[in-house]
Amino acid sequence: MPATDLPLLIDAARAAGQIAMLHWRADPKTWKKSDDSPVSAADLDVDAALRDALCGARPRYGWLSEESPDDGTRLGAEHCFIVDPIDGTRAYLDGQVDWGLSLAVAEGGQITAGVVHMPAKDLTYTAAIDEGAFLNGEQIGATSATSTRDATLLTSKATYASANWKEGVPHFSRKFRPSMAYRMALVGEGRYDAMMTLKLAWEWDIAAGSLIAAEAGAIVTDRRGGPLRFNSETRRTNGVLAAPAGLHAAILDALA
């Protein structure tokens, strides 16, 4: 990883975050994508600003973004930017604060630098491989939870379906945040014990957060405990689970 990748991501995230804030609570034009999810003029403006800043500085890097067409050329690149311009678009359009920008660099299928920037909350989570995870410049760490009983779990309601668990749903303390990138960063911060999704996860939702959680000491895998690989042809992973080692093992053991 070039030594300047993380500073580049931070600068781009903060600049694009200002663009997002200009549209926030200002009734930007919105429409539905083919999967019926919302998108707005703000998403596209932020996406364009990030692409100009990042690919302008690293023209040989590939580009994978939720809001850009994917022509597959990124698959031949040694490095690839993986970006979600606004993660938590529904919350953003509702005027809530729990949305953010997710920016990462992948090299050889592995995330080497990541930023989750939350402009409305004035929070910037950062990580570079083997260098730890930080929130607004202060190092952070995951919890040491080992048991599912009363562990705080960030996930959607669908996860708690009884069919997903061997012997009934464990006694989690149930929590939720609309941005998946933010959920992973919160695990890295130690404010919550774990996050997971059992559904296929888009890479742009989890790339940056996966490194932040891992560098903070959490174990981050797919829903079966396998390694996550990025800049893939499918652009998806088989779910994701991020938790401290003991709790991670306990959740995997409890899952059906």
Strands, helices and their partners?
Blueprint: H1 5-23, E1 30-32, E2 38-40, H2 41-57, E3 62-65, E4 79-87, H3 89-93, E5 100-107, E6 110-118, E7 123-128, E8 133-135, E9 138-139, E10 152-154, E11 173-175, H4 180-189, E12 194-197, E13 201-202, H5 203-215, E14 219-221, E15 236-237, E16 240-243, H6 245-254
Parallel strand pairs: 3-4, 10-11, 10-12
Antiparallel strand pairs: 1-2, 4-5, 5-6, 6-7, 7-8, 8-9, 12-16, 13-15, 14-16
Helix pairs in contact: 1-2, 4-5
Count of helices?
A: 6
| Uncertain ranges | none
The CATH homologous superfamily name of the largest domain equals: Fructose-1,6-Bisphosphatase, subunit A, domain 1
CATH level-3 fold name of the largest domain: Fructose-1,6-Bisphosphatase, Chain A, domain 1
| General form | globular
Q: What would you call the structural class?
A: alpha+beta
SSE run: HEEHEEHEEEEEEEHEEHEEEH
Question: What is the beta-strand fraction?
Answer: 25-35%
Number of β-strand runs: 16
Largest sheet: 7 strands, mixed
Widest beta sheet: strand line-up: 3-4-5-6-7-8-9
On the 0-100 scale, what is the average pLDDT?
Answer: 96
CATH architectural group of the largest domain: 2-Layer Sandwich
Family: Belongs to the inositol monophosphatase superfamily.
GO molecular function: inositol monophosphate 1-phosphatase activity; metal ion binding
Cofactor: Mg(2+)
Pfam family, one: Inositol_P
